[in-house]
Fold:
Amino acid sequence: MRKLTLVALTLFFTNSSFGNLQVYPTRLFLSPRSKTGTISIKLKTDEPMTYRVSTMFYEMLPDGSMKQRPDLARSEESAKKYLRYSPKRISLKPGVEQVVRISARRFKSMSRKEVRTHLYFRPEEKTPNKNKKNKLTKKESAFDLRAQVAVAIPIIVSSEPSEKPHSIENFKLFTENGTNYFSFNLVNNSERYLYGDIKVYKNNSGDRKLLTEVKGISSYIPKRLIKFSLTELNKGSIPNGEYLAEFNEYSSVKKEEGKITKAQFIKK
Structure:
């Protein structure tokens, strides 16, 4: 029997669960004021699973997609050398929560104001049962096809939490392949990382109608293109009028205490 295992990577930014796993929190921010944290993971299947815990560095591309870059694990942006975590291997039983503890150190030696990495949970392959015999004819083949989920949780280490200057550029609405979208460039004017929520409204004589809300948007690069569909806008042409975009940046504070940046677009 041939065994084919598919490993699907999940980067948790907004959702606390995917497939058979439940993870909380989906992002961790550590600083001299909060040097330690925990990530809990729970299995929602009937079979136990074992995961290896490590760190993985991801490069963000201009469109916001993420690419694994193990070669950058020791770069000045990487938080790997400032972190300690345990355990490094977890065996999950169905419905039982397992906690991984993380701590940050050596803040004064950081060459940047903020560094980052992802805590990487990768499923461990099960050992085949050597006693199990499979009777196959010469023309037959067999596959044990199993989809497994690898989870990556972003961890930000900051030497001193402070304001993160940013701006919204080139905000617009447009139609593409029959679907209405908004887009803008989220510009970061510091060496820190942005994280927050986005809202887009249509302004009707001072009465704002919420068209879409996107939660948990991260940016690790100087300029990231933000593009999402307008969920509350009917298909077809976009009505003329005034549209507003808001980005509430709260990476190191509570949501209600974040800094809201606005942009305006008028369609004529």
Remarks:
- The radius of gyration is 22 Å.
- Residues 1-7, 138-147 have pLDDT under 50 and may be disordered.
- Residues 211 and 233 are 6 Å apart (CA to CA).
